[in-house]
Structures are given as structure tokens and as C-alpha cells.
Amino acid sequence: MPKQPQSFRCVHCHEEVSTSALGTQHRNHCPLCLWSRHVDIEPGDRASDCLASMEPIAIAVRKDGEWLLIHRCNGCGTLSSNRVAGDDNPLLLVRIAVKPLAQPPFPLDRLAQI
Length: 114
Hints:
Layout: E1 7-9, E2 16-18, E3 36-37, E4 53-61, E5 67-73, E6 79-83, H1 90-102
Antiparallel strand pairs: 1-2, 3-4, 4-5, 5-6
């Protein structure tokens, strides 16, 4: 397996990103904007031919409380999860986590009718 580069340029915000971070061994998302590139089929294998940008769309939480960042590929539609890294932007993580509450799929005034 080829050696992983020390850094990469973010596909979304174009910042230079170090591949080493607390909490992850296979970084492929930007800690600033949380976008990724579709590089893996399995975590760390770098075997995907797609290489399209991946938008951060949701947060999932494991049984142990660890947060996962959910990405959707803008090329092929694949969904993938990535462990949240220690240097990920906390404000953007919280924005993504509360988005379903801030933008419910129904008018909030319907809650008063229940």
C-alpha cells in the first residue's frame, strides 16, 4: 500500500490540511469546513475511483457517544461515515447536528395542534 501523503488540499475551501489528527488514522476530511473527497471504499484503503467532493450532511452517534460525520458524495451519491477528529470545527459540527431541529420537515405551528 502506498504511503499516505503528509497533507492534502481541501476540495471545498482549498486549505492545506495535515493528514494527521487526534482521533483518526485515515483523515480525508477538512477540519475547517468538514468537506471530504471520495477516496476510500473501506476506511484508509484509498481505492475509490470516484474522487468527487463529499458534503458533510449529518452527525451520527455511536453507542459509546462518539460522534461520526456523515458525508454524501456529490458524484455517485455514496454515503460514508468518518470519525470526528480532535481538531474538527466544533461550531460546524454543532450546526450540522442541530440542522434537523432548526429545519424540520413540517411547519412548527403543527406542534401546537398535537
